[in-house]
TrEMBL record:
Assigned protein family: Belongs to the sigma-54 factor family.
RNA polymerase sigma factor 54 core-binding domain boundaries: 77-260
UniProt cross-references to Gene3D superfamilies, sorted A to Z: Homeodomain-like, RNA polymerase sigma-54 factor, core-binding domain
UniProt keyword Transferase, yes or no: yes
PROSITE patterns per the UniProt record, alphabetical: SIGMA54_1, SIGMA54_2, SIGMA54_3
Example of a GO MF term: sigma factor activity
Database matches in Pfam families: Sigma54_AID (PF00309), Sigma54_CBD (PF04963), Sigma54_DBD (PF04552)
One Gene Ontology term from the biological process aspect of the record: DNA-templated transcription initiation
Organism, scientific name: Pullulanibacillus pueri
PANTHER family: RNA POLYMERASE SIGMA-54 FACTOR
Protein name, per record: RNA polymerase sigma-54 factor
RNA polymerase sigma factor 54 DNA-binding domain: residues covered: 272-430
InterPro entries, A to Z: RNA_pol_sigma_54, RNA_pol_sigma_54_core-bd, RNA_pol_sigma_54_DNA-bd, RNA_pol_sigma_r3/r4-like, RpoN_core-bd_sf
Species classification: Bacteria, Bacillati, Bacillota, Bacilli, Bacillales
SUPFAM superfamilies xrefs: Sigma3 and sigma4 domains of RNA polymerase sigma factors
Length: 430
């Protein structure tokens, strides 16, 4: 007979506390966003006293409080309205496992400004240590978010996702968009109507609907206002190599406001001030941790990019988030969050930190190049080509192999060209 009795078990569980969520947010903030966040917290916490950095350019304000600080709030708000932030806000509302959340967040990181996902599934599966099915599931979740069409892998899929939202039961029209977009664009309506036993009027209606769709949904969140980039990290050449340091002159310094010290002896005041004191300590500790993590990751990235620092963008080494995470013994998602919205000033110019992450391309010389370097070579080939007889994708493939020993497929060249917004050879011909 089965005996039922109470049994005590000990289970270790990670609980996402408010403090942990806030610490993760601080990790993702740019230096400008972090400065604004610190100011917001200080307005609600009387124990926090800020020493503001001196603005680079004198500013005049009618408000005496704002007059003491450089106004960076507009820049922070523009960042918050970006595609990544819009998608992440929606993802936070989904009921996902921790692994699903990590994968979806990472894939959002890889979307291009148009809202497309153009990365290789095999490479990502290897980098993230998960199955192809898990990557597919994460991308499907992104494709269900707003704006419709985001997360598509090509134009056909982008338009199909949008059309499906408008007409979910029109399977035939979705098939036409997915497989016969070129015929529709060239208005070969008679052949399509005959093939699918439809009238030309029906094809015209589908075409009219397609023309209302957005081929670049990500640009809906691109602001036209100028965004002034301030580097979060600086790399400088020294006699012994390169020095990596943080740019901290934009951050206000947090101090304890001692004028409220006498109120700690009052029980009622203590009830209010005690959590404020803990908040101040937590904020200082979290900022120190954020700065330490950003510096470590930036140094490690630059350690892998010494040739780039010396010779330029052609020499960017292949590098993945996973490799940096393994070197530092931290989670890959920590690297992803830390490099998000961060810029680094180098002897070769200012770059986004995530610019240095790219897949490996093998060459006949048994050396690896980064996909970023190959894209740079492709761009220069197009700039130097004969405009009366521009290079086809296959011609670029042959040039890369003959000149640099790089072996990539025509499909990969086409993908790189689309990402870089380089038209096809027929459209480049003059």
């Amino acid at each position: 007979m089965l005996e039922l009795r109470p049994v005590q078990t000990q289970v270790q569980q990670l609980k996402m506390t408010t403090e942990l969520r806030q610490a993760i947010s601080l990790l993702q903030y740019s230096t400008q966003e972090l400065a604004e966040y610190i100011r917001e917290i200080s307005l609600e916490n009387p124990l926090i006293e800020l020493n503001e950095p001196k603005p680079d350019v004198p500013m005049t304000y009618s408000d005496p409080i704002r007059a003491a600080v450089p106004d960076l709030s507009e820049f922070a708000r523009q960042k918050e309205a970006g595609l990544e932030e819009v998608l992440l806000q929606q993802v936070r509302l989904l009921s996902l496992t921790e692994d699903q959340m990590e994968r979806v967040t990472t894939l959002i990181f890889y979307l291009d400004p148009d809202g497309y996902f153009r990365e290789d599934f095999q490479e990502l599966s290897h980098d993230l240590g998960c199955s192809l099915e898990a990557i597919e599931e994460a991308l499907t979740l992104i494709q269900e978010l707003e704006p419709a069409g985001v997360g598509a892998r090509n134009l056909q899929e982008c338009l199909t996702l949008q059309y499906k939202r408008l007409h979910p039961h029109d399977q035939l029209a979705q098939q036409l968009i997915m497989h016969h977009l070129e015929e529709i664009a060239s208005r070969d309506l008679e052949a399509l109507a005959e093939r699918y036993d439809m009238t030309e009027e029906t094809i015209e209606e589908i075409l009219a609907c397609i023309q209302t769709l957005n081929p670049k949904p990500g640009l809906l969140y691109e602001t036209e206002a100028p965004v002034y980039i301030r580097a979060d990290v600086v790399v400088e050449a020294t006699g012994e190599g390169y020095e990596v340091r943080l740019v901290e002159d934009l951050l206000p310094t947090i101090h304890y406001n001692s004028q409220y010290q006498h109120l700690f002896s009052d029980r009622e005041a203590l009830h209010f001030l005690k959590p404020k004191y803990k908040e101040m300590l937590w904020l200082k500790k979290s900022i120190e941790q954020r700065q330490s993590t950003l510096l470590k990751i930036s140094k490690t990235i630059m350690d892998q990019q010494v040739l780039f620092l010396a010779k330029g963008p052609h020499y960017i080494a292949p590098l993945t988030l996973k490799e940096i995470a393994e070197i530092l013994g931290i989670h890959e998602s920590t690297v992803s969050r830390t490099v998000r919205n961060k810029y680094i000033q180098t002897p070769q110019g200012v770059f986004e930190l995530k610019h240095f992450f790219s897949s490996r391309i093998h060459t006949s010389a048994q050396t690896d190049l980064s996909s970023t370097s190959v894209k740079k070579m492709l761009q220069e080939m197009v700039e130097q080509e004969d405009k009366k007889n521009p290079l086809s994708d296959q011609g670029i493939v042959q040039n890369l192999k003959r000149t640099f020993g790089i072996e990539i497929s025509r499909r990969t060249v086409a993908k790189y060209r689309q990402v870089m917004k380089i038209p096809s050879s027929s459209k480049r011909k003059q």
